[in-house]
Design a protein that fits this description.
One of its GO terms (cellular component) is cytosol. It is a single chain. By secondary structure, the chain is of the alpha/beta class. Helices cover 36% and strands 23% of the residues. The protein has 19 helices and 26 strands. The strands form five sheets. It has an eight-stranded antiparallel beta sheet with strand order 3-2-4-1-10-9-11-14, with helices on one face. A six-stranded antiparallel beta sheet has the order 5-6-7-8-12-13. Strands 18-17-19-20-21 form a five-stranded parallel beta sheet, with helices on both faces. Helix 11 links the parallel strand 19 and strand 20. Helix 9 packs antiparallel against helix 17. The termini are close together. The structure holds 5-amino-5-deoxy-1-O-phosphono-D-mannitol (M6R). 5-amino-5-deoxy-1-O-phosphono-D-mannitol binds next to helix 9.
């Protein structure tokens, strides 16, 4: 959601900002805009609804000469207040046109602020909450206690704003400075040679520098050609947290693939291997920034997993593993529901918050609620230093690398692997598994990347199936045990990419209602358990398939290699390598990702940027 880039340096700010916005496109947006300081007291602004291409055309039409300057900022907006039209696109300006603001997040007290501005005779030109900040900063700069002090004016306004926000502000009277502020929403500083950046995500400046500084909560940064200065909202000196980005430009590019998503599907073996690396040492499972002691893990009497979307599906897999290995009750809850139903939490509750972005507002609020209730929170996250891990007691990073495609793929597999690590760490601390059993489970996990690589060898067959079913009206997905979350994930991928009606069901539920949906030629994807490990379930699923086949459905069956019993019931059979029961989602999910991507492509959709969706959802 909303991408932000700010720049002061020696290059064309317009080029840097547009390049940065391109790299942030994955976050999802519906309009874009730029502002450039020309160094002579001029502040040129252009904004346009729709894709970045529309903005670029507009810049060509008005002439890019007006945007010559080496300080500026840009924004991609995901509409919250007001529709995605030109006048609501960022940057927003004050009445004089000297102050420009771009913003990510929501200013919750904006109605009060807007009323105050209107009462003072200021006419607002947009429906947004952001515009109020532009006017307030201009007023503060003109007549506040720190009049004429640009950063101090921004700080004064930040102290009045409620909600989560990142603001980046330019002032025509200060052509060599960009000021940015952060509360809860993401903001990082890029540190180059005689050039500095601010952005929602390091991807925006990775082609210029890998040196970055993560800003803390309620901090303001001023960047100029000479450096950067961090203060808190009161103006006291503060420090960000410097870090070096451990991936480079190539990781943020398509590398010969038509889409990022296809590249990311291919990267899954490495994502898994990197997530597992270093977590078994000296015969023990070790987690990352583990600020929970073994005693803390022994004290746990209940686990809640909170997450959204795909991350939630990974949490459903975690339930099977943790309950089985640790004999601990596990509840998996949609983060958006969690805090509104007054869950029973105390200091012996472990809340596992899963989020690839670490920015998801629903999950963040669930974490805050859990901590208020004294529960301990362990975050599983793919983004270094994001807000959710910052606010958690402990963090386990997935090392899937940047995921640009809006649909989660490699982060899903990495989350499942991280969940298993948490399960094994709990089992180890609580003694529900002997050390040699933990070592054996970890060794099985370590074999998973090779198994996923093998599945990737079958994508041509899956794509062919996708082509055959691309024009279907709906698709059902069925699974049992850990195959059930896989079915849910397969349906979610198809919905978000191909805009098709897709539903995942626990296969046992079929006869309790969904079987009424079965009709002639309806494609039904079935995730089969192994005929060995869960023989009873296998037999039950075979019966379920025969019931749906008898009613005319077309079955697409994902089954273990050599599963002859299911063959007669499969109109299409996709074979996956044999895996230990709990680990099967790591291989069974992959064909479903490929299937959804292919169906979406056949229907002519951009699989990296599905409509209406954002990569990180920073509003509740
Ligand atoms: O960044 P998060 O993992 O917290 O995101 C959660 C969901 O928004 C995300 O998984 C979403 O469902 C994906 N688009 C699914 O592909």
């Amino acid at each position: 959601m909303c991408g932000i880039v700010g720049y002061v340096g020696h290059r064309s700010a317009l080029d840097v900002v547009i390049g940065g916005l391109r790299r942030l496109e994955y976050r999802g947006y519906d309009s874009a805009g730029v502002a450039v300081l020309d160094g002579d007291g001029g502040l040129a602004v252009e904004r346009k609804a729709g894709r970045l291409g529309n903005l670029e055309q507009q810049l060509d039409a008005v002439g890019r000469d007006a945007f010559a300057g080496s300080a500026g900022m840009g924004h991609t907006r995901w509409a919250t207040h007001g529709p995605p039209v030109d006048r609501n696109s960022h940057p927003h300006r004050d009445t004089s046109g000297k102050v420009a603001v771009v913003h990510n997040g929501i200013i919750e007290n904006f109605a009060t602020l807007r009323a105050e501005l209107e009462a003072a005779g200021i006419e607002l030109a947009s429906d947004t909450d952001t515009e109020t900040a532009a006017h307030l900063i201009a007023l503060e700069y003109a007549e506040g206690p720190t009049a004429g002090d640009f950063p101090a004016s921004v700080r004064a306004v930040c102290r009045r704003l409620e909600g989560a926000f990142t603001l980046v502000v330019a002032h025509a009277d200060h052509p060599d400075v960009i000021v940015a502020a952060r509360r809860s929403s993401p903001l990082v500083v890029g540190v180059g040679e005689g050039e500095y950046f601010v952005a929602s995500d390091v991807a925006a400046f990775i082609e210029h520098t890998r040196e970055a500084v993560e800003l803390g909560q309620d901090q303001v940064v001023e960047i100029s050609r000479d450096g950067y200065r961090v203060t808190d909202f009161a103006g006291e000196p503060a420090e960000g947290k410097p870090f070096t980005v451990n991936w480079d430009l190539s990781a943020a590019e398509k590398g010969g693939h038509d889409y990022f998503m296809l590249k990311e599907i291919d990267e899954q073996p490495e994502a898994l291997a990197n997530t597992l690396r270093g977590h078994f040492s000296g015969g023990r499972i070790v987690l990352d920034e583990q600020r929970l002691t073994d005693q803390d893990l022994r004290d746990v009497d209940k686990v809640f997993v909170v997450a959204c979307g795909t991350a939630y599906h990974s949490g459903l897999v975690a339930k099977y593993a943790i309950e089985h290995w640790c004999r601990l009750p596990v509840e998996v809850e949609l983060a958006s529901e969690f805090r509104y139903r007054d869950p029973v939490l105390d200091r012996d509750t472990l809340v596992v918050a899963i989020s690839q972005s670490g920015e998801t507002a629903d999950t963040l609020e669930a974490v805050r609620h859990a901590r208020e209730q004294k529960a301990r929170v362990l975050a599983i996250c793919n983004t270094n230093g994001a807000q959710i891990p910052r606010e958690s007691d402990a963090v386990l990073y997935t090392h899937a690398g940047p995921e640009i495609g809006v649909a989660a793929t490699k982060t899903f597999l990495a989350q499942i692997a991280a969940n298993y690590l948490v399960g094994l760490a709990l089992a180890q601390a609580r003694g529900t598994k002997y050390p040699d059993e933990v070592a054996r489970e970890f060794a099985e996990l370590e074999a998973a990347p090779a198994a996923v690589r093998k599945v990737l060898g079958t994508v041509d067959q899956v794509r062919e199936i996708g082509r055959r079913f691309a024009q279907s009206k709906a698709v059902l997905f069925l699974g049992r045990h850990v195959g059930y979350p896989v079915a849910l994930e397969g349906a979610l991928k198809l919905k978000e990419l191909a805009y098709m009606h897709a539903e995942g069901f626990a296969a046992g539920e079929l006869k309790h209602g969904p079987i009424a949906l079965i009709e002639q030629d309806l494609p039904v994807v079935v995730v089969m358990p192994s005929p060995k490990g869960r023989g009873v379930l296998h037999a039950k699923l075979v019966s379920n398939i025969s019931e749906i086949q008898a009613r005319g459905a077309r079955t697409i069956v994902i089954a273990e290699e050599g599963d002859e019993a299911v063959r007669p019931f499969a109109d299409e059979l996709i074979e996956i390598p044999a895996m230990p029961t709990l680990l099967q989602p790591l291989v069974a999910t992959v064909p479903l990702q490929v299937l959804a991507a292919e169906i979406a492509r056949q229907r002519g959709f951009d699989i990296d940027k599905p409509r209406n969706l954002a990569k990180s959802v920073t509003v509740e």
